[in-house]
Design brief:
The protein folds into two domains: 5-122, Rossmann fold (3-Layer(aba) Sandwich); 129-222, Orthogonal Bundle (Arc Repressor Mutant, subunit A), CATH 1.10.10. It contains eight helices and eleven strands. The protein is elongated, with a radius of gyration of 18 Å. It has 225 residues and is α/β, with parallel strands linked by helices. The strands form three sheets. It has a five-stranded parallel β-sheet with strand order 2-1-3-4-5, sandwiched between helices.
């Protein structure tokens, strides 16, 4: 099995050494970076399969690096590993595009479990998906309607992708949180409602917002209009 190339952007040498030791024994190929600049350079040089990203770095915030990653490497799985533990911090990290968010101090065993979950979730079938005029390409992270590109946030993309993998099925808010945000990400169920509204707003100019249906008392589904 090919080793997973793992970028760790963390300025604390002790944490870097601990993660290097704990994860290398599991077969990860580690690329350590101690600043946002160094992390970005390693992404360009080595195209890692996953990144662990601290928020507070000496030259720039991890959030700014995450924004940069999402613009040019939208498919790179990123887990924020940070001391910033407030709910608003978690929501910001996830909205900008983190695939998971874990706070310090953390259990290495839990981190490993979350990393495996993110890899499973972010390496789905790469087959192009089509529903009515709506097209989604998991490989390039592109969505279009009648060939017109649709600019979605990473969460909106994952939400739409999950619905398109399971058309006509009803999912509760809790199920969507588990499958799209991840079981270990602690955000309120109202977060689902917010992103459903945002996704509908993106589809509305094309008359496809009615595809994203509310099933009262049950949740949401994506169906042909």
């Amino acid at each position: 099995m090919t080793a997973v190339r793992l970028l760790i952007v963390e300025d604390d040498e002790g944490i870097q050494e601990m993660l290097d030791y704990a994860l290398a024994e599991d077969g990860y190929l580690i690329y350590p970076a101690y600043s946002a600049k160094q992390g970005w350079e390693l992404i360009q040089q080595h195209e890692p399969d996953m990144a662990l990203l601290d928020w507070m770095l000496p030259d720039s915030s991890g959030i700014e690096l995450l924004r940069r990653i999402r613009k040019s490497h939208p498919g790179l799985p990123v887990i924020m590993v940070t001391a910033k533990s407030g709910e608003e911090d978690r929501i910001t990290g996830l909205d900008v595009g983190a695939d998971d968010y874990i706070t310090k101090p953390f259990s290495v065993r839990e981190l490993k479990s979350r990393m495996q979950a993110v890899l499973r979730r972010t390496r789905p079938d790469k087959q192009m998906l089509q529903l009515c005029e709506l097209s989604l390409d998991p490989a390039s992270h592109r969505v279009s309607i009648n060939d017109a590109p649709l600019a979605l946030t990473p969460i909106e993309f994952r939400l739409l992708h999950y619905f398109m993998l399971h058309p006509d099925r009803v999912f509760s808010r809790a199920q969507l949180l588990d499958q799209v945000w991840g079981r270990q990400v602690y955000v309120e169920e109202r977060t689902v409602d917010v992103h459903i509204r945002r996704l509908r707003k993106q589809l509305q100019p094309f008359g496809l917002d009615r595809m994203l249906q509310t099933v009262h008392g049950s949740g949401y589904r994506l169906s042909r209009p």
